[in-house]
Amino acid sequence: MADATLRAAEALYAFGLARREVASPNYDWKSSFHRIKRLRNEAALVLHHDAITGTSRTTVVRDYLQRLTQGSNEVQQVSTDMLQLLLKANLQNHEAAVPFAFTAALYSLDVVQLKADFPQVYPIVVQNPLAWERHDVISVSIALLTDKQSSSIKGLQVVDQNGTPVRAQIFATMSADNVHTPNPTTNVRLYVEVRIPAMGVATYYLKRASKKDRLEKNNLVEHVVTELVEVERASGRVTSKGAAGKLRGTSAQGGGDDIVYRRQSEWFSAPSQASTDVHKSSNNNNDEGASQIILETARLSVQFQKHSGSIQSIYKKDGTTKMTSKVSQAWMRYTSSRSGAYLFRPHGTATQSRGESDRVTIALIRGKLVQQVRYYASHAQQVTTVYNIKGPMGDVVHAEPSSTADMNEEVVLRFNTDIASGGTFYTDNGAELMKRQHDSSKPIPVRNLNVCCLLACLFLCCSPNSFLFVVFCFFAFYFFLLFFFEYRPIFTQ
Amino acid sequence: MNAGMALKDTRKQASGGTKQVMVLNDHPMACASLLSDGAGSSMEFMIARSLRQDDGRGLAQGVHDSSRGNCFVACCSFLLLLLLLFVVPFVLPNEENFNISNAWKRANADITETLQSFRG
Q1: pLDDT band of B51, cuts 50, 70, 90
Q2: What is the pLDDT of residue A490?
Q3: Do A4 and B113 touch (CB under 8 A)?
């Protein structure tokens, strides 16, 4: 994250500097450069092996985190300054006096507050630091700060810099902490399809649609009601009661216009027969068809497990080859009283005994641009999203799993696939792809475990030094080194 | 920085390609492929660790690393990719070819270099 911010700021700084005569001769270029340099130093600092593998002490990690956060914030300010200078220089008549603020990167949680006096247009500037055009979906969280009808989330429109409406979708999201409460949500989330030229910047404007468009329901932001079901997994009994709800804080009046979520007393309506059949044929569990959720875009279709928000299989229907693959997810855990930061010594194999509670809540959003399943079990959550766009991001299933571990527990997410790999797998450390072989000959209790670390620490496993490590571990009755990454450390106090 | 893991089918598809499943994640974590037989194989990723004791290798404290909470990267995100591949051959250290599609490369870069957005 810090690296991406840094690179983006460096690119903008270079552009700004190249045009400094036009843009702003008075700008303090030197101090901006120092801010960039500082983040460079901080980013370099966390390349230390202890920072990468998560083998540093709590205070040290806090220090790393603080340095990166501070450095990033300062550099974001540089990006913002540069964008303003550049936009102002390019568009003389543009209202470039509007102060910009950095809203963090893609998938950000930043909240845009739409007040009743919400301006005519609300610009969102998106920068692409990569050297090719990107076709993606960005999202912005929107809070309605008033109960006036004028701030309704209906009748909104997103246009690009030429004034052409772009595809967009808005829906209510909730989090694990509040999904069970009567009023689970205060925010809605806006998703906008964007196309940004290589190394370029694009501006999108959120505005109220014209009266004509509103009446004809043309080119509007698609408003999708989030459907919520609470279900007992074992019996399949739906325990939630049917009720519709609005955003917290909005007035009770105003009819059913602004309903953003609906609790259902029945299971979700069945998906189209065709897509169910596709998944059925590949899964050998024909009895489950109707009770499952299917997300579908023009290129992908994702089927979920019975009464669960975990993925079961993915069907790729675009391109020259159509194929289905089983990618069945399972939350599992290892218990251990001997593992530590460096060593992975679980008591036997992973068990499924904890992870998903029996009573779970599933939220389903089926829109034309974004389709999403939000899954809340007691110890695990997952948000799975597919984007109905062209380009590589439309070819992937985006999953955000998260879980917490109890004391002396290590939680893993396992994907059981129908790929006969013969025990070979490939890991990518960001620099190269490594071929690895599951080694079933290791004389380890219960089951052989070959765990690989994924990232920069990989060289330890591959260099001659690793031999020492492995031998050492072997003698000590450990299996393998396990490194864990701890940039994003959350420490239980 | 991001990382990924891939499985490749040893069987050829009817169309002549080979089936692959790839998981890309926007930050690295331990992974393994423990179960493998003629019908399929598994991939697993470590999401959270909480260990009370030190393992005597120098850290001198336990580990509490969970993907939930307010943090720099709030939670790990996987991108599951399903591709029948043909596109770019990728040479592995043992000189065996492993194909990575352009889509994979793009998606990989996209999650590394996120779009930067600003609001007015």
Answers
A1: confident
A2: 30
A3: yes
**Which of B7, B25, B45 minimises the CB distance to A421?**
B7
Rounded to a whole number of angstroms, the distance from the CA of A137 to the nearest CA of chain B is 10
Compute the distance between CA of residue B5 and CA of residue B3 in angstroms, rounded to an integer.
Answer: 7
User: How far lies A479's CA from each of A297, A408, A441, A446, in Å?
Assistant: 43, 18, 11, 12
Partners of residue A124 in chain B, C-beta under 8 Å: 117-120
What's the Cα-to-Cα distance from A431 to each of A136, A396, A428, B37, B108, rounded to whole Å? 24, 21, 7, 30, 11
| Mutant choice from A42, A426, A448, A486 vs B, greatest count of B C-beta within 10 A | A426
User: What pLDDT, on a 0 to 100 scale, did the predictor assign at position A459?
Assistant: 24
Q: How many pairs of residues across A and B have Cβ atoms under 8 Å apart?
A: 415
Please give the pLDDT value at position A105.
37
Mean pLDDT by 10 residues, chain A (493 residues): 84 88 78 94 87 79 88 88 77 48 42 53 82 86 57 78 90 83 79 91 83 83 90 84 72 57 83 65 52 83 86 75 78 86 81 76 93 88 88 79 83 85 78 74 42 35 25 25 29 27
Candidates A102, A393, A486; nearest CB to B107: A393
Nearest CA in chain A to B99: A433
pLDDT for A35: 95
Q: What is the pLDDT of residue A89?
A: 66
Output B38 or A145, whichever has higher pLDDT: B38
For A:83-122, CB contacts with B below 8 A are 83, 98-110, 112, 122
Is A80 within 8 Å of B67 when comparing Cβ atoms? Answer: no
Q: Does A141 touch chain B (CB under 8 A)?
A: no
3-state secondary structure of B8: strand
State pLDDT tens for residues B79-97. Answer: 454 443 333 333 333 334 4
Give me the interface pTM, i.e. the ipTM.
Answer: 0.78
Q: How far, in Å, CA of A445 to CA of A479, rounded?
A: 10
Q: How far apart are CA A456 and CA A434, in angstroms?
A: 12
SS3 letters for A148-210? Answer: CHHHCCCCEEEECCCCCECCEEEEECCCCCCCCCCCCCCEEEEEEEEEECCCCEEEEEEEECC
Q: pLDDT value at position A34? A: 95
pTM summary value:
0.81
Q: Is A5 on the interface with B (CB under 8 A)?
A: yes
CB contact under 8 A, A342 and B59: yes
Question: Could B30 and A451 be called an inter-chain contact, meaning their C-beta atoms sit closer than 8 Å?
Answer: yes
One-letter amino acid of A395:
D
